[in-house]
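User: tokens in, sequence out, please.
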């Protein structure tokens, strides 16, 4: 489609995707925090005409047993992991970059990140950006009391079965003109377990103006839940990827949630 003889603007608007998953009776068991919790927060603001780089690599693991003895998991062990990686490179252009990063090993959301950036290239410049977040929960069977298998069950079960959940999301772009915001939240120490990732990108003029270059965002879910002890009762897999190349506006929201069903 041509608009007043100008190159067509490809507008990609992805509806919100939400996966809310409850297993047979074991999904969503939170990882245990240690008695002493740690937190990290950094706030970054960069305004530059020239070259900008920014990189983050974060990995947090938690267990109610001894991490040094896992794998294999110990009896009744619940293992949790949150990863976050980011890489920004901007060359020969005008860049404004703002980032608020926080991680807390005691309270959910355990990872809370907001990133905004604007960029307009010079004669030969471009901005490259890649952001990834992941969440992993693995649990061995554990004894419990007064947990009902389902609303129609006649008796409480004595054991929560094993479970394994691995979720990841992220985005990447190579652009010469963009105004973008990403939002990341992960919670593994409280129920429901959750991961949220969202990205909105337009041209540097804001909504209604096209960005130039290419962009992609993806979302992956793998969840297995036991039906009794270590027997496999449910398996959920999901993968989605969206991309645009040329002139575009782009928006995508991705959510995963998991809880123990009463």
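Assistant: Sequence out:
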């Amino acid at each position: 489609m041509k608009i007043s003889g100008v190159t067509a603007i490809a507008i990609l608007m992805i509806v919100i995707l939400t996966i809310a998953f409850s297993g047979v009776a074991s999904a969503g068991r939170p990882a245990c925090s240690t008695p002493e919790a740690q937190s990290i927060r950094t706030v970054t603001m960069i305004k530059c005409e020239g070259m900008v780089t920014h990189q983050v690599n974060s990995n947090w693991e938690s267990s109610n047993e001894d991490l040094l003895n896992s794998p294999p998991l110990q009896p009744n062990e619940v293992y949790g992991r949150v990863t976050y990686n980011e890489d920004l490179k901007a060359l020969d252009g005008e860049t404004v970059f703002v980032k608020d990063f926080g991680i807390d090993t005691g309270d959910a959301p355990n990872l809370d990140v907001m990133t905004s950036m604007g960029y307009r290239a010079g004669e030969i410049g471009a901005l490259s950006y890649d952001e990834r977040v992941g969440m992993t929960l693995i649990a061995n069977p554990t004894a419990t009391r007064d947990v009902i298998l389902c609303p129609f069950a006649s008796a409480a079960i004595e054991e929560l079965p094993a479970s394994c959940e691995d979720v990841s999301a992220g985005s990447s772009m190579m652009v010469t003109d963009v105004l973008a915001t990403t939002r990341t939240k992960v919670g593994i120490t409280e129920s429901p377990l959750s991961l949220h990732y969202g990205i909105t990108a337009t041209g540097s003029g804001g909504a209604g103006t096209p960005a130039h270059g290419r962009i992609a965002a993806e979302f992956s879910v793998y969840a297995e839940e036991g039906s009794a002890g270590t027997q496999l009762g449910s398996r959920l897999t999901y993968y989605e990827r969206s991309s645009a190349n040329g002139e575009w506006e782009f928006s995508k929201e991705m959510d995963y949630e998991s809880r123990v069903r009463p």
